[in-house]
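pinging the channel bc i need a second pair of eyes. not urgent but kinda urgent?? the chain im working w is below, pasted from the shared doc
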Amino acid sequence: MKFLGAASLLFFSGVLLVAASEDGMDMSMDGSMSLASGNMIPYLHFTPGDVLWFQGWVPKSPGAMFGACFGLFLLAIVERWIAAIRSLAEAYWRKRCLATPSEDSEKPVKSSTPARPSGTGILGSRTALPFIPAHDISRGLLHMGQTAFGFAFMLAVMTFQVGFIFSIILGLGVGEMLFGRYITKGVSH
């Protein structure tokens, strides 16, 4: 009997909490959400008036939409350019680190076994380059830039504005045509 009373008390308190949390608000996502200076339409659309990254950036006229789309197009090309710079830098840094002799290779080997190249051992050739602040700080900054562009593009796509989406896709494609041949395999981009 105590269990039934505790269960019914728990059930009714849950019902009261759910009823109190609604506050009479319509929580459906069928229409557009009214924002301070724009609307958010939750489906693909071509209509202007979406907030792009900041509350004050709401392209409402056709000219403003063209400018926003052209800006996204150029930023997408810049993202691919940064990927190419990062890839070329990675190749240069790898070549430079593997070309410099290590301290072990300068010492004469006094053993009957054949000499192995520097940086090799049981596991084979060196798989990771040494930490060099000039290389690794630059690598981190380039990665931060690429990540920032990725997040900015994701937020622009989340507006569901088809013009923004097409501009980003077109810019990434043109950027890949321009700079893709410089991007080596194995480098994340």
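so The mean pLDDT is 76. and The radius of gyration is 28 Å. — does that match what u expected or am i reading it wrong
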